[in-house]
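Continuing from the previous page...

OK, I double-checked the sequence for BppU N-terminal domain-containing protein against my notes and this is the correct one:
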Amino acid sequence: MKTTFELDIQKEKYKYTSLIVTGRMGDLASNTVDVYIKNGGEPYPLTNLTVFYECVKPDDTAVRDKEGVNIIDAAKGHLTYTFPAEVFSAPGQVKRSFFSIEKDKTFRATTQDFLVISLHDALTGHIESETYISEFDKALEMVKGHRKEIDEANKRIAELTPYIQKKVDETDTKFKGVIGQIQLRVDGVSKQIDAMDIVKKAGDTITGLLEYKSDNAFVLGSRSYKTIFHKGAQGELIFAPSTKEQGDTWDWSKKVEIRTDGTIKQATDTNWTNLKTTGVETVPDRPMKYKKTGGLVTVMGSIRNPKNTAIFATLPEGFHPPQDVAFPVVVVTGSTTAAEFTIQKGGGLFVNGVSANATCHLVASYVV
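Thanks. Re-ran it with the corrected sequence; updated structure tokens here:
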């Protein structure tokens, strides 16, 4: 028979109730209560809400469960709850036991506490004598059944041991003979190399052409960082330092290339890159652009209708001059006049001394 509980979420009058649920360790799905949730004595609707059972067991571990909840009539706050076996896994009185009603993480209410007692079972901590003896006898019979097989296996192992040892000794003798033959061959080759003076252990001089048939690399060692020197896929010669002292990995961000067209390219070099402008018009086929070769930065392009000292473009980091620099600029209005083109140390670009509706042809180069 189910026990019927009325539990109220208003706990001002009673925090605890006199309701009791009793179970025994090992009970499975056999403890079910009929629950009516109230709010100040009135039915508490459970529509669109989730109900959990929560408790702290005698061994101070917690249980939070919603699987055992079965809503009978949500509008009347009516449900049944079947306690999981975990609630009765430790003997004693449950310290806190209640239902919580939640909606996502935006709402939570709890009922009054009710008492749950977990009774001892008959087996935990005790040995059932007849079962114990029966299991022990079965184990003895199994050992007796395997004993003969074990004895026969041991006998066979004893018979095979001398044969295995003989084979090991024969193999060892043959192996030593092979090692001796290999060593004789190595000694012979070493003597031939020394006699012909082909391979040097120290410095040497080559009077003819030394050619690599594949794209291999040279590594130059030093007391600090190493340097690798190799040929790239397009025939370029590439130098790069090691990433750390005496390291064998290479910092390609610092590489230097000698290209097949005779030019030298550093890792920080760039091709011509368009520069975005604001507040001015660009001249067709003459957009603002910039480039870096080695430590030299070049900026060029043409603009229309600039405002004096108003920044119309900004160079990216790595292309800024060490200080503000100014360059002459050709200004075309009704006639050609001279004005000033400035690049700030922060990368900003502006012109000064130009008249309204002027077209400015800009070019500047500086070292960073």
